[in-house]
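Shipment paperwork, digital attachment
Item: protein structure file
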Amino acid sequence: IITSHLSTLVFDVLSTENQSKGQSYYGLFVPSRNGANQGQWLNPDFPISAYQLKESGFVEFREDDQYTALMKAAAETFTLSLTPDSLVEGEIILKKKDHVTHLISKVGKSLGTVFLTNYRVIFIPHDKSSYDDAANAEETSIPLSLIDEVSEYGQIGIQIACKDWRDVIFGFPADSRNLFFKEIKEKMAIQSTEKVFAFSSRELFSMNAWDLFDPMSEYKRQGMTINSNWRVTEANNTYVLCPTYPRRFVVPSSVTDDDLVAISKFRSKGRMPAVVWMHPHNSATLTRCAQPRSGITRSRCPQDEKLVSAILQANPNGQEVYVVDSRPVANSIANTFMGRGIENTDTYKGTRFKFLGIGNIHVIRESFKKLNVLCRFNKDDNQRWLSSLENSHWLENLSGLLDGVSLIVDTMDKHGCSVITHCRYFQLEIQLENPP
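Attachment content:
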């Protein structure tokens, strides 16, 4: 909303020009939300308080054949000094570029200023009324962690593809695109968790965020701490056994911390079987872990077999323990040649296997990218939209996931059997250098 001080300055400029030309011309216009051509001109002879500016929220420098240059000059003069007024504590402006064009699909374009901070990319339009839709007249804010990909667009543009499926395109003045493009790429390349903005933020909270979740209270709520079949281990207190597991987790009471040391060496990434949920009525438990390092030689770990057996014995209502592996069978066989694999039902007594057939992380990511690209286009503009959706295999992947969920729920709730699930195996991980 234009301020009284700013309006006075602009009115002075416009009035001087109009008087020198012997004309009466009001260069500021408040458009109504009912339509772009409805609203009121502002008369410099009346105070700004005489107008109901809150209805639309912005003022337009309305162009005229004789005064177009004047209107644009006035708009630029009083908006190039704009800075984001919503910076959070600890956020720092690293780069700023004026005269940048924001291209908006099916709406048009707007001239403004782009800021790069240590947290996000911000675009502030110079003249918010240049948007046909008032709902788009706000700042465009893109957190760096939300950027999926940034690429060059034409000769002077940058296209930012976001993880929330937004596509944002900025057009830069000549010879300034490459520098801004390079800066964004560098800020996206986060090598460790400590480099994300959360560690630079100076925002204060009324409580310690580490106290928002208390695992011991959660275990107590589920009844694990009062059940003699289970105990809370602190064997991973320094994150040595498994950097991606919490300090405390639930295991069968008969399994010692020394057993867990051996098991962590047998399971991929040290992700040993850990109980995460217990059925409130039939004592069936849900346990997560990684695949065993059995390999083609079918290596064994007595401590691991002991743990799985203890899970079965802790549930008096279940006759078996279901091991649900999210991979296709072929993938599990291939993994045996890399030193991993599956549990052998001959040595893991009372277990039954079920493969869900869900693709690995690379397959799912590729499927998601195809869906992302597809949803950027209106289905009315693409006659092959439905067939393209089918070719992305996204619905197929969702179906496989929901089938797996249904199987686990049915196994635990209706049949009273405990379930062990295998997590996916992948290489990329960002870990805390100094865990709290």
